[in-house]
Structure formats: C-alpha cells, structure tokens
Specification:
Elements (H helix, E strand, L loop, with lengths): L2 H13 L3 E3 L15 H4 L2 H10 L3 H4 L5 H8 L10 H14 L11 H12 L4 H9 L1 E9 L12 E6 L2 H5 L2 H11 L6 H14 L3 E8 L10 H13 L5 H22 L3 E5 L1 E2 L12 E2 L10 H6 L5 E5 L5 H10 L3 E4 L8 H14 L5 E2 L8 H24 L5 H19 L4
Parallel strand pairs: 1-2, 2-3, 3-4, 4-5, 5-8, 8-9, 9-10
Antiparallel strand pairs: 6-7
Helix pairs in contact: 1-17, 1-18, 6-17, 8-17, 10-11, 11-13, 12-13, 15-16, 16-17, 17-18
Length: 423
Amino acid sequence: MNGTDCFSELRERIETIPLVDIHSHIDGEHPSARDPKEIIFYHYIVTELLSAGAPSEVLFSNLKFDDLMEKVAPYFKMIRNTSTYWCLIKMLREIYGFEDTEITEKNWRDIKELIVSHADEEDWYRKVLRKVRLEKGFLTFRFDEEIPRYDSEFYVGALRIEPLISRLDREDITGLEKTTETSIESLRDFEDALPLLFKRFSECVAVTASILPDEYFIEPKKEIAEEAFKKRLDGSELGSSEKNHLRSYAMHCMLKMAEEYRLPFQLMLGVRRPIPGASPPDYAIVGFETKSLITLCPLFDQFKEVKFDIILANRVQSHELAVIAKNYPNVYTSGYWWYAFYPTIIQQFIKERLQMLPRNKMNGFFSDAYVVEWTYAKACMVKLQVSKVLSEMVNDGYYSKELAVSLAEDLLLNNPKRLYRLR
C-alpha cells in the first residue's frame, strides 16, 4: 500500500471515531447558531478580517448581519488561504449544503438563507452533534454566574476560576460572595467560601484557569497573602511580591479543593492579554516566559493526586511541556488552543506527544467553539491532522495501521473519558 492509500484508509476509519471536546464556550441553552453572525463572524474569523483591512468600527458595531456583510464581504477573499476559512467553508458545505467554495458579495445572502432556515429547528443542534459524533462536550461555567440549563446527553460543565487566582479584585470577591451567599472580609473568609463554591458546581467534571505567562507561582507566605488580600478588599494596588504570594496562595487553595473533589485541573497557557492595539475583543497575542512552566512543577509534585491537563496556545513551549508530562505522572497534555489551531502546529503537537509520551497522556480535541456548527468545523480539521500524522508514522514503519487507529481512538475519545471520568 502506498502512502496515499494508507492516508485515505486511515482518514476514512478515523472519521468514524466519536470524540470528546474538553473546552468550549457554547451556550448550553442555545447550542446552535440563532443568527448568521454567530457562524460567519466567529472571533477567529474576525481577527483575520481585521488583519486583512476590514474596518473595526464596522465589525464591532451593532449592525445587523445584512448591513455588516454589505460592508465587509469584499474582505473575505483576502482570507481564502487560511485554515480557519477552510473550516468555515467546509462547515457551510457539509452542514448547510452551501454549494460554492468561497464567500462573495454575490452569494452571502444564500448563506444567510441556509443558516436561518435551521435557526429555529428545535433538534438542529442534535443533528449537528450527531454528525460531529460528539460523545461529550465541555461547557464553561463562570464561578460568578448561574449554571445554565443544558443537554446532559451531550454536555458536562467545567468551572472557570482564574479571576479567583490571578486577579482577586473587589468585583471578583463580590461575585464569589453572591455565588456562595457569604460575606468575605478576610483571606480566611475566602478560604471558607471555596468549599461552598465547589459544592455549588459539584456537577462539573473539571476546574479551568487561563494563566498569563508572567503569572508564576512560589511557595506562598500566608501572612503576606493576608495583607495583600486586605489591600485587594480596599481597592489598593499590590506590589509584585504581594501579587505573587496572593496568587500562589489562592492557587494552593484551589488545588486543595480540586484534590478533595477529584477534579482534573485544566491550565490554559501561552497567551498574553490585554495587548494594546491587538485584535479586539481579545487584545491577545501568544507569548511565554522561560519560568512559566518550571514554576508549575513544584505544584505538580506537591499535589500528586490532582491531574493537571495543560493546554497551550503557543508552539514554543510544546517540547518543554511534553518533557514535563513525561516526568510527572499526573500531568497531561491537551489540544491546540487558539493561535495553535493551525495544521502545521497541530501536527507538531501530535507528533511530539505521540513520540515522547505514553499513549494515555494526551487528549486530542479542544474546539473553543461558541456554537455547535463550529464544533463540527474544528473536529474536521483535527481529524484530518490526526490522520496525516498517523499515516506518516505508519509509512515510516513505526506503527501498524491497527495501532494507528487505536491511538486515534485514545486521542479523540478514550483518554479524555478516562481523565475526566466521563460515563
């Protein structure tokens, strides 16, 4: 069998594998798009349109879809080469039956009609998810918001908590007070509120936090953290040392709760934000500090019973992370976040992890989607890259075809089910 035949066979078999999506921003009450803007102007696409020259005052206005497309449709031809655009067109063609291969000034009304025709279809999101073959997807629940209604056949929750680690300003503390129905006037009150928070979100299967590159961790001194917390309550500014001690103390508190509730801890790394002038609304670019990963290692060692799932947005730290996961049994690797969601980088991540790590230490799908239609598009991209990498390994004589398919099943389905204890 030649290389092309091997790839084609593996791709066909991998397409049938169900998968788990360990991170999304989907609204549990409305999983599918209700407005064409939610599909066509997904923020990954918006960033590319802005970069191509589309006016920001138009893209971030309150214009309706028709008025928006009248002004920015010409810019879509400038992003036809990107893999995000490939995802968008593939989704429009395979889910909605769109027949063209590009978005133009002449056909965008046809796209709108196709999307709108399904917007009020009650079971539309289920049809899309069955096409995705989604076994479970994670919804993001903010610590200071109500848990929405959601379809538990397809979804589970992950508790998002980084403001309670990295920032801890008066607004965040007030949000925690509201959620836990307590008064927080000291660091001790903060600690006492956390069991109430975790009990409130006990249906969640993971804890999630996005950590900035310069937010590193030390062995905290409680007395410094207490004084820093008081200053936060007063609205006072903290010095660098105070921030480090308070952040590190809060992280220790969260990890103790994750340990008690047996919740894997997702750490999302590699993004700097906000960056003035970067693309709104995120104002983010990739970045890293040389000590950002190494300062996590003492936490990996101290909290051996906590399973850490590390998710990267930059490619620079990919090898370092794989080495860390190789050395720490409780450290896992997942997906390709944000600016890493491009074929070359996805393939690099998969290759490094397959070649360096035990097969149970990696999770292969992470959509970051806001509607299920984009879950489908992202799944298509990932399965294609998994097929490419595994067929290359087969052709080079490292794997048999059967082992390759078995590894794909682990990446997409078995590993996240085991790590997150999904039924």
